[in-house]
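ok new one. same drill as before - structure tokens go in, u give me an amino acid for every spot. 549 of them this time. try not to just spam alanines like last time pls lmao
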């Protein structure tokens, strides 16, 4: 150690000793503020001199010119580290949480989450590789003519809406108009829809309600193809279960647009066929034309709503690709699915708000459906991501058989999260006959739908979970649902005719488009997808492959 360093260390020790003497002699008891200021200035001056002496009076780069190449060496750790991620004023939601939002006030805020470390890249297989090993219950898509692959523009490669719209139109001109569709969607087409509805518990009343709901949604669409959340009541401050919403739903246009398109697609409409084809076409163009560079479909949604919006919009675009085989949509779907994979926690298997968040069940449901829909569209390579999702679902499970589920691990179970987790487990291959399924269905059955407990989010997931599990629980739930949901639809002949009023839980957040789209999707359950409890065999409603006219 140099002599100068010893001298300065002596100065520092002397300064510290002086401070101790000042405190012990009660020198600060009079005119405290002035003396504290003087001491602070003096101490900082001493520290500045010490630092300048040790480190130099000027940075090494001052007065120099950097020339030539710069080499940066990066070390990549084998395991991601944990770091605090402060979630701000939004806090946590409880186990009954729904889509698009984080509560502003919560009794158990999350103090930290895993650092935003990207998970290992999971390659997406090519269309040819996916076709070589199609999933069960899948009718392979007709191969597009070679000229399509060679000449169709990349509609999603630009963020310019006009260019993207032109690309979609030019690709449509050379794609075949008659093709087979994946079997999981075949019951939406033509006469199969009516037959499936009658065979699985639907009725003329449910079909009238669906068509009226779609009519209102078509009329509510804006000229640029979006459904504007705030224009239809989203973001209105409401309080449910003692938690403030803080109006974050007002900028969820991409999310509610995705939901509205899913309701349209669920009844057999695409951007090419069906009575609402032009409506779907404008909506798909809007989403694809505004996809972000990282693949996200979140649009202008704020942080806590972004991944919800991305998931809902991605499912809609991927369904459109799967049903129509429109290859101009594939690049956008590829990038969107890659974004979903990048947002999954590499160890817990969950999704939440940012890459590296440990996850919650509400987000998990939408992202699991992204992967399932992408498979139907011919993508693959999701085995590892789906295995991690099963791990996450196990972490939030409770009950004697593990059939109940909470919003996050360690929290109390709720009907909404139990239903959503059950649906995810069924989609990921769980048996409808498993004890966990029976436990979940019994828990759902204890909270039947009534007008006094309106909650479009809970009813949607409880309905699809019960339908795909099958059995007596489905029959009971379906009867109660129809008696309640159909009667709650607005049928007064006015401008709101065909819509559903926003419910008191999440309706104020998502608005009328959210409530109407989810309610229509709930009543389309009979034919939106073939029931998972019949996995491996086809309903004897029509030939295995349906052709789009």
């Amino acid at each position: 150690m140099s002599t100068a360093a010893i001298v300065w260390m002596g100065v520092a020790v002397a300064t510290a000793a002086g401070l101790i003497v000042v405190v012990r002699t009660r020198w600060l008891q009079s005119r405290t503020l002035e003396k504290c200021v003087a001491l602070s200035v003096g101490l900082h001056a001493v520290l500045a001199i010490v630092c300048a002496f040790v480190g130099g009076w000027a940075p090494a780069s001052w007065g120099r010119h950097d020339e030539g190449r710069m080499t940066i060496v990066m070390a990549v750790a084998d395991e991601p580290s944990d770091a605090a991620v402060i979630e701000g004023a939004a806090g946590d939601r409880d186990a009954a949480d729904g889509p698009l939002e984080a509560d502003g006030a919560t009794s158990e805020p999350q103090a930290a989450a895993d650092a935003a470390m990207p998970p290992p890249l999971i390659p997406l297989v090519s269309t040819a590789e996916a076709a070589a090993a199609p999933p069960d219950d899948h009718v392979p898509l007709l191969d597009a003519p070679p000229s399509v692959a060679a000449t169709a523009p990349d509609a999603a490669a630009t963020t310019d809406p006009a260019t993207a719209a032109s690309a979609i139109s030019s690709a449509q001109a050379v794609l075949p108009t008659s093709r087979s569709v994946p079997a999981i969607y075949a019951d939406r087409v033509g006469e199969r829809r009516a037959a499936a509805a009658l065979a699985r518990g639907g009725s003329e009343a449910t079909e009238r309600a669906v068509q009226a709901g779609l009519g209102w949604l078509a009329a509510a669409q804006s000229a640029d193809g979006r459904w504007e959340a705030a224009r239809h009541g989203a973001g209105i401050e409401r309080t449910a279960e003692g938690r403030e919403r803080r109006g974050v739903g007002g900028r969820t246009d991409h999310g509610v647009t995705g939901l509205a398109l899913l309701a349209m697609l669920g009844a057999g409409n695409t951007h090419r066929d069906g009575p609402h084809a032009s409506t779907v076409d404008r909506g798909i163009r809007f989403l694809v034309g505004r996809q972000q560079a990282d693949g996200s479909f979140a649009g202008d949604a704020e942080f806590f709503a972004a991944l919800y919006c991305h998931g809902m919009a991605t499912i809609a675009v991927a369904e459109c690709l799967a049903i129509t085989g429109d290859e101009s949509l594939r690049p956008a779907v590829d990038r969107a699915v890659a974004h979903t994979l990048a947002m999954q926690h590499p160890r817990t298997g969950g999704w939440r708000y940012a890459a590296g968040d440990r996850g919650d069940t509400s987000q998990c449901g939408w992202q699991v459906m992204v992967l399932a829909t992408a498979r139907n569209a011919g993508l693959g390579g999701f085995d590892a991501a789906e295995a991690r999702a099963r791990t996450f679902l196990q972490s939030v499970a409770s009950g004697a058989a593990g059939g109940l589920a909470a919003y996050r691990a360690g929290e109390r179970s709720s009907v909404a999260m139990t239903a959503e987790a059950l649906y995810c487990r069924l989609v990921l291959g769980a048996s409808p006959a498993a004890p966990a399924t029976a436990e979940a269905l019994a828990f759902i059955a204890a909270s039947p739908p009534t007008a006094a407990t309106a909650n479009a989010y809970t009813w949607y997931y409880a309905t699809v979970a019960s339908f795909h599990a099958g059995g007596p629980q489905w029959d009971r739930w379906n009867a109660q649902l129809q008696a309640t949901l159909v009667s709650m639809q607005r049928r007064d002949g006015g401008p709101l005719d065909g819509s559903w009023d926003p419910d008191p839980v999440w309706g104020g957040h998502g608005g009328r488009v959210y409530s109407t789209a989810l309610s229509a999707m709930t009543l389309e359950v009979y034919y939106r997808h073939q029931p998972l409890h019949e996995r491996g065999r086809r309903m004897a409603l029509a030939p295995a492959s349906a052709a789009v006219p």
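The two ends are 87 Å apart (CA to CA). and btw Residues 3 and 386 are 64 Å apart (CA to CA).
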